[in-house]
Amino acid sequence: MSQEKVTIFDTTLRDGEQSAGIGLTTKEKLEIAQQLERLGVDVIEAGFAASSPG
Questions:
Q1: How far is CA 16 from CA 4, 5, 20, 22, 30, in A?
Q2: Which spans in 1-54 are helix H?
Q3: What CA–CA distance (Å, rounded) separates 42 from 37?
Q4: How far is it, in rounded angstroms, from Cα 28 to Cα 7?
Q5: Measured distance CA(4)–CA(51) in Å, rounded
Q6: FRET label pair with 13: which of 5, 23, 41, 48, CA 20 to 30 Å apart?
């Protein structure tokens, strides 16, 4: 039986701030990234540096 790995690619930090009225602080972004890491997420797409401050 072959072993296949599922790669988890999370876009919470990028897409999450695209919703109207949503703005995460730097501290909140760091906390989310740390929790995603603890969950074993393989790739965290942080966003676009020019599109959102912090």
A1: 29, 26, 10, 7, 14
A2: 12-15, 26-38
A3: 8
A4: 24
A5: 36
A6: 5
The confidence score (pLDDT) of residue 40 equals 97
**Number of domains observed in the structure of the chain:** 1
pTM of the model: 0.73
5 close to 40: Cβ distance less than 8 angstroms: no
Its domain, for residue 11, covers 1-53
Residue 50 burial (10 A CB sphere; 0-12, 13-18, 19+): exposed
Which sign, positive or negative, has the C-alpha torsion 49, 47, 37, 35?
positive
Q: Three-state DSSP class for 17?
A: helix
